């Protein structure tokens, strides 16, 4: 920043904060400005002169970085939520493409729907979100295996079998419930898919949470399909 700021001759614009580290009014470091809601505008300034006897300078820096850390974590969570919404939309598109009722349409109608879905899919592809999860090679491979297994549910023409397998996958995420006498639930409701469980346990904790959310959304859809069928 090099130049000297004279606050008497160059008044600051309304709302602009500054950070005065060494207590000298002619040496200031402006903090970055972010437009938007109040909580995303300016960080608090560090003013050595105004609070020299109250809190150590290092403690004020630590407090400021702590606040930045909280905002970064919130941003990451918001981005993950958006990524999950995109994944759900993508999964919905795949389910629609594999819906066996499409075969009941006339060829021209089926082509029209297919072209429409392609346009929507292309628009969805323009949304790029990337929240990086640190994984080693083994975790990457386990996540790939889990995604392959889930994709097989989506592409299966038999909604009943997909629902049963999806429940077994979910049991691997949260533990299979104990069977009680007189229950009307199927054996699959109390069974864990060991192959899926093995791959799941090799994933990161963040990936495991995301996988569970995907499966819950998928089984909700499949339950509606099997009931209507």
TrEMBL record:
Family matches, as Gene3D superfamilies: 1.20.58.890
GO molecular function: adenyl-nucleotide exchange factor activity; protein-folding chaperone binding
Domain of life: Eukaryota
Keywords associated with the record: Coiled coil
Biological process according to GO: protein stabilization
Residue stretches in coiled coil: 58-85
Record's protein name: Putative bag family molecular chaperone regulator 2-like isoform x5
Lineage of the organism: Eukaryota, Metazoa, Ecdysozoa, Arthropoda, Hexapoda
């Amino acid at each position: 920043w090099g130049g000297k700021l004279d606050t008497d001759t160059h008044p600051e614009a309304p709302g602009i904060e500054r950070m005065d580290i060494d207590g000298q009014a002619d040496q200031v470091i402006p903090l970055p400005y972010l437009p938007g809601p109040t909580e995303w505008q300016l960080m608090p300034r560090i003013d050595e002169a105004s609070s020299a006897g109250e809190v150590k300078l290092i403690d004020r820096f630590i407090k400021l970085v702590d606040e930045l850390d909280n905002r970064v974590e919130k941003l990451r969570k918001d981005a993950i939520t958006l990524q999950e919404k995109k994944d759900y939309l993508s999964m919905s598109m795949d389910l629609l493409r594999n819906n066996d009722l499409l075969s009941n349409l006339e060829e021209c109608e089926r082509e029209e729907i297919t072209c429409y879905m392609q346009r929507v899919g292309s628009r969805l592809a323009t949304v790029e979100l990337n929240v990086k999860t640190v994984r080693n090679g083994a975790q990457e491979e386990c996540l790939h295996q889990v995604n392959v297994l889930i994709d097989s549910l989506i592409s299966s023409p038999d909604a009943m079998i997909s629902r049963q397998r999806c429940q077994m996958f979910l049991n691997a995420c949260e533990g299979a419930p104990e069977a009680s006498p007189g229950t009307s639930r199927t054996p699959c409701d109390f069974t864990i898919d060991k192959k899926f469980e093995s791959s799941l346990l090799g994933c990161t904790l963040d990936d495991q949470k995301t996988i569970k959310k995907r499966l819950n959304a998928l089984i909700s859809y499949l339950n509606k399909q099997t009931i209507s069928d």
